[in-house]
């Protein structure tokens, strides 16, 4: 009998399309599935994941492709597939339930719920046969089907009680206190307690990058002079750059490079090999901050490497950015099976066969290559005889060992990398999730715009502008101020979430700073107004993740954690402070301050939960400063002045162009533009007034003053 697709065949999500030919009668999240559940009286089985999720692939192969399990699912449940990246608010709601009832969470997320979408049982990955103390998926299905048939009243009562508890979590309370220096000190102390003083990073393995925490450390160091905060951030970023989590085969103009999702060990050595746009966007910004704080070339080079990876490997024909690359790819040994990291792993023999003898000896020492393989941990037996590229020795160390000049070492290693990169291109690539998400593109636009200023690279600005133009033209309605979240295969869809507004506003504000193109500022202001209108709770003083008129989620939640992605509330507080500083509109500052205060209880309970919100609070209490630049955009003398302002990180600094056409938005800047005479100049404004024109970079640098640490 010829296989038939299920209802996912008409979807755009790569994750949903991966399951379109399963024998499971999958439905996408939506009213059609819910109507069927109510009509048939069956519970809903929700399976949530994303296209590059390794264990999602495993569970599909083991269970969802199995005809017997599919028949069981189809007979007793209404199966629903959710792309968590398309609907993060739905996923977040049910993940709270899974974490509360099991003590842990992860993807694929598996939740069983009533036809009214009230959950009664959940977990993450369930194996095909019982192992690791986890019951088999089949046994769970059989048990829950039996309970639904014979003990339904108890399940319904339990589900109703659980939903009441979730509604309680979702019900915001007005803040009772201020966020103070004590919260910042407690956040620093929490990070210090979890810090790995030898290898950097926070907590044990698996070890995740935490760009929001790094931003806090840079901000705290600059504000207080705390050298340990700076050392923690710099060591973490240095060790990550040297580790296997960083693809060491990035070649300028060709691709490769960038960072994997996380490390399975404390040494940043053995990554989970998927690459996410949001990680690379935030890490690029972190490496730029590190370069501003230290002046070390390593950090600038690593930021360039990330940008090179995204622009070569993750950019759509329209100029926007794809979402992710898979951890898995076809085994290079020809088994026909997909294996994690197959694209990135090397045997010692492969390296010797592809390089000259001198190059091979140097590269093997540089990257810790061993005949038996170099993975310090191999929990699933996938890396035997294989090597993960990392920097085991620096160029200086290699020069001493091989009695070579550092220039010769660098030249030979560069040649070796190019040869291995070209060889790797012949391998089957990991799968690409080519959907375009507004929030993640906003983060990347922001990083590129900052990179253009800090690194002096106009190509980065051009890339940021091209991506922003696509998002604004395709996923934004300027008349209503409404955003859509996802574009793929010619379709723009899904109501934008608070994170989409917040991250795009951040990107547009940074793009305005880098280009002084007034259109980006106008769009950021309009989006800020729309976000406050549609997401901000005026009673509680915080942003919901979902808009008031978005019915796609049973309960609206307020995010209170800067995790892998920054909380929309933290980013929005930062945005509103910037919008207030640029426009002089007090309502933006009021929203920012209320948002910061709302989370005082959350910070009391978990001081390191919202490090980016603490960055916003530090900006809010720092005396504001603005530079109004006058002169023709693109003038080399003006470019040099602007670059001076971004030589160091000064989050409290607002940069504006003296554009006479912005009279209605920025009257002070427009007035300076009308009065200004002569060549490009900077006007430093603080305390309600502006100083006289500064025309050379050295004088501007002196006027700005040296930060506490630099």
TrEMBL record:
InterPro entries for the chain: 6-hairpin_glycosidase_sf, 6hp_glycosidase-like_sf, Ssp411, Ssp411-like_TRX, Thioredoxin-like_sf
Which residue range or ranges hold the Spermatogenesis-associated protein 20-like TRX domain? 6-166
Segment forming the signal sequence: none
> Which one GO biological process term can you cite for this protein?
carbohydrate metabolic process
Q: What SUPFAM superfamilies does the record point to?
A: Six-hairpin glycosidases, Thioredoxin-like
Q: What is this protein called?
A: Thioredoxin domain-containing protein
What phylogenetic lineage does the species belong to? Bacteria, Pseudomonadati, Chlorobiota, Chlorobiia, Chlorobiales
